[in-house]
Amino acid sequence: MRILLAEDDPDLSRQLKASLQDAGYVVDHAPDGEEAHFLGDTEPYDCVILDLGLPKIDGVSVLERWRRDGKATPVLILTARGAWSDKVSGFDAGADDYLTKPFHTEELLARLRALVRRAAGHAQPLLVCGGVRLDPRAARASVNGEPLRLTSLEYRLLHYMMLHQSRVISRTELVEHLYDQDFDRDSNTIEVFMGRLRKKIGTERIETVRGLGYRLKPLHDEVSQI
Fold it and tell me: Which residues are annotated as modified residue 4-aspartylphosphate in the UniProt record (predicted)?
């Protein structure tokens, strides 16, 4: 999952970026509204954490521009302001959720998981595809009840495919959502890790659709049940 963190406080930014990375997210950081708007307008994100009090362009204005341009990415707003009217302005601009500073990082991560899950059309916190199960809360996955030992990138790859199971996902989409903006887009890393993931969850569960991408699906004799 790829996150845009738009926050001007250096200490909070470092803390949040480290916590998000520890939780398995890839994070791009924008220290002001101008850069936040540019990144959100040009890069695909699974969710945005947006401070309302950004310099250059305030967070509400950034969000209004995104929504006016048709950007539907889930947005969690952060605000140090205590007035209820600021929260209303954020929601009216198109925010999906909010947190008032100071907050517990665990709450931010829980709200983030919920936004990403709902945006992908999942109501349950546990992601299931036949015998494959993934719990984003604990960052754990299993196949037919047996725990999977995954590297961080293998986990991110499986998580994204579980969120978008049964849909063909292109290599370009995977690269855009699993790596930050500085990643070498010509790398064959996706193919390498896709091969490793196949070996761990079963080769037949990941279908290669020639010329289009990959699709995660349950085996014919499996029924997804939570």
Answer: 51
Entry pTM:
0.86
Question: In this structure, are residues 54 and 28 in contact, taking their beta carbons and an 8 Å threshold?
Answer: no
CA separation, residue 174 to residues 38, 80, 99, 141 (Å): 21, 35, 29, 19
Please give the sequence-ordered ranges of beta strands (E in DSSP) within the chain, or none if there are none. 2-6, 26-30, 47-51, 75-79, 97-100, 127-129, 132-135, 140-143, 146-147, 206-209, 213-216
Given a cut of 80, whether residue 47 has pLDDT beyond it is: yes
pLDDT tens for residues 66-87?
999 999 999 999 987 666 788 8
Cα 71 to Cα 69: distance, rounded to the nearest angstrom: 6
pLDDT in tens, 25-45: 999 999 999 999 999 999 999
Reading the block at residue 219, the tokens are: 């085996």
Closest CA to 56 of 85, 31, 87: 31
Question: Which domains, from first to last, does the chain contain?
Answer: 2-119 (3.40.50.2300), 127-216 (1.10.10.10)
47 close to 1: Cβ distance less than 8 angstroms: yes
The DSSP element (H or E) to which 22 belongs, if any, is helix 10-22
